[in-house]
Amino acid sequence: MDLHKEIYIPKPSPFDPDELGHFGKFGGRFVPETLMPALEQLRKDYEAVRFDKDFWAEVDYYYKNYVGRPSALYYAENLSKELDAKIYLKREDLNHTGAHKINHCVAQAVLAKRLGKKKIIAETGAGQHGVATATVAALFGLECEVFMGAKDVARQELNVFRMKLLGAKVHAVESGSKTLKDAMNDAIRHWVTNARDTYYLIGTVAGPHPYPMMVRDIQSIIGWEAKEQLNAAEGCLPDKIIACIGGGSNALGIFSHFLEDESVECIGIEAGGEGLECKHGCSLEKGSPGVLHGQLSYLLQDADGQIQEAHSISAGLDYPGIGPEHAFLKDEGIVTYSHITDVEALDAFVWLSQSEGIIPALESSHAIAYLKKMKPEDIKGKIILVNLSGRGDKDMIQVKDILKEQFA
Amino acid sequence: MKNLVAYITTGFPSLEFTVDVALALAESGVDTLELGMPFSDPVADGPVIEAANLKALQNGFKLHHLFEASAKIAPHIDTLWMGYFNPFYHKGMDTFITEAKKAGVNGFIIPDLPFEEAKPYKSVIEAAGLNLIDFIAPTDSKARIEQIVTDAKKFIYLVAYAGITGAGKSEDLQEIVSDIKTFTDTPVYVGFGVDQNTAKEKAKGVDGVIVGSAFVKVLLDESLSNTQKITKISAIAKEIKEKINS
Ligand SMILES: Cc1ncc(COP(=O)(O)O)c(C=O)c1O
User: pLDDT tens digits for B195-238?
Assistant: First the structure.
């Protein structure tokens, strides 16, 4: 198969949700009644294009000519030597705008355009999804407003500037923890008021149905390509696949095409923050099932069911929830989940930069760090696929501040 | 006689004050009280009610406070709990049903639990002799309205416009009201953006109004003493009750 010629079209998955969006007991649509007709309409609109060749051909045009797909699968020679394993990096960091987020932005913008919507809104944490949304808005001539927690506006100032430069309006959200969770609250509030002419471009595999399934379908191009590329390079499947998890889109993107391959272990890495006994973002490991942002999934919450603040050095993982399909895959034991702390992620940020000349996003550094956390006997001689979901340019100001002594 | 439903956020500024305000509202002609359960992420609410929710939580509000206050209030006025679904899910619907029966509370309003997801819970709630209030929004089709209202009990919460609480927009609801009325005799109450100024207009063609932000604004007003707040809230309730029935 020639990835430069082939068009990616999602296929039905055994993990597809039911008509109401349930992955087992998770998922669903928990939103104010005002939004239900819009979600039901979107469900039908997406079903109509889900396997439609014309739709995906249009998306494919932008993937190949604008985003730069297929993204490279890079054999990380130096890491491989150091770890005595074969490490392959799926280079989503090389995409236009610097992360996997552009994939679901292009496809959803093509859908929004087809639906005749003139405005798009988005929430963003690290700003990668906001930048990617602002980018496709500029490309397709759509009006764009991005909701971002005030705390993230401060720690990701470069991305805020990029969004504005691209013509988007950025709302700094001052309520609650002033991070991604609160940005999503305000995006939902805006959408409740404006659903008639506005497309809500959700940036991960979370939210009410059909978003978790739709974004997973779109992002699964990552694993579809990687499977083919690895097969060409090694003639076999990987032993392990590692990806970081905020809401879970880059992880499901690379996992989905391997979930039925029993020999492949998929490992999702949550944000360990300052450690599991302190502040962190481990909804699966430390949370419990609950409802937030339109879905039933694992959540960080207190005894009364109040949502707790997450913490991570990386804004993109700083979220107290997780996509419902991950909740299902965890309970079914199909995917393994673990965590990496801020300190370990920062260490991997430097490690990958200096051993391969690739500066990863802080989010992706969590996946890289797990290579070091595994026991040597668990990875010796193994083929390991890591999703390098984004590049570290956006994190330069933040990391420079933390590491200025080390690189003085 | 058209009915007035009043929403207040529990535990703000204090639990004792919530009880005092509730009893004052009961004496001012309010027919049903919605006791709001403060939640960390109230996505259906505008800035006013959101602020009250967050302040109540900062003051240390816990669910057992709601249960305790309700036992003092419910004997005096028809009382419902209005809250987001997560605390119900987390504590278990059974817990809420038991506590509601104990306190004399008559049912629940859960704005992020639409018809489809409500189904399994609605039957349990009704079997316990309580009510789960159904919502209709101006975005709903006639077919969806029929589905939702056919089994609606107590009253139907008609959202006055596509938006969040307290936005004070307006939409023409005559058609949607007549659609609802073709399928059910259950009373229809309009909520969202109803205050002293809009009550009369919004009550047209329906059986009652639901008022929240207009009361909570007074609760949040730091220039007023608690006594002044109660006086003002009672006056607003009386005025609205009068206007919708004039
Ligand atoms: C580079 C990068 N990776 C990962 C994430 C986390 O999102 P998700 O778990 O949906 O892939 C983000 C979010 O902003 C990101 O920017």
Answer: 999 999 999 999 999 999 999 999 999 999 999 999 999 999 99
**Collapsing DSSP states into helix, strand and coil, what is residue B82?**
strand
Q: What top-level class would CATH report for the domain B3-244? A: alpha beta
Nearest-CB residue to B162 (from A31, A176, A193): A193
Residue with tokens 């504005």: A164
Classify the complex by whether its ipTM is higher than 0.95, answering yes or no: yes
DSSP A266-331: EEEEEEEET-TTSS-B-HHHH-EEEEETEEEEEE-B-TT-PBPPP--SSGGG--S---HHHHHHHH
Q: What is the mean pLDDT of residues A276-285?
A: 96
What helix, strand, coil percent values describe chain B, rounded to 5?
45, 15, 40
Torsion over CA of A299, A303, A306 and A311, rounded to 10 degrees? -50
Nearest CA in chain B to A22: B117
Distance CA A61, CA B195 (A): 53
Please state the length of chain A: 408
Mutation pick for ligand 1 pocket among A129, A244, A284 (CB with most ligand atoms within 8 Å): A244
Considering the segment(s) A22-66+101-215 as one domain, its CATH architecture is: 3-Layer(aba) Sandwich (3.40)
Amino acid at residue number B215: F
Active site residue A389: yes
User: For domain A70-98+220-403, which architecture applies?
Assistant: 3-Layer(aba) Sandwich (3.40)
